[in-house]
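User: Run a structure prediction on this.
Assistant: Running it now.
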Amino acid sequence: MISDEDEFDCTRALLQAYDYLDGEMGPEDCAKIREHLAKCGPCLKEYDIDQMLKTLVRRSCGCEAAPTELRTQIMARISSLIALNVELQDEPG
């Protein structure tokens, strides 16, 4: 989650664009992204490109399932990243 002390800059907005597009952000963070996009033309343009790309991929590849091996590799990588994130959050300091 984005803390109020953090400046919500272009870098952060663009890094979180896909999380926003996928509906994977909380309401407070969504509001900050919307506010930034409303004020920042270059980020809005980049967001629009990301949105169009996502729509194009969905339309072009929506009926094709990823190969089982690829899905297994992706899920294993996600699981290891989640475990690493939990470990880092549990570290003191």
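The chain has one domain: 10-90.
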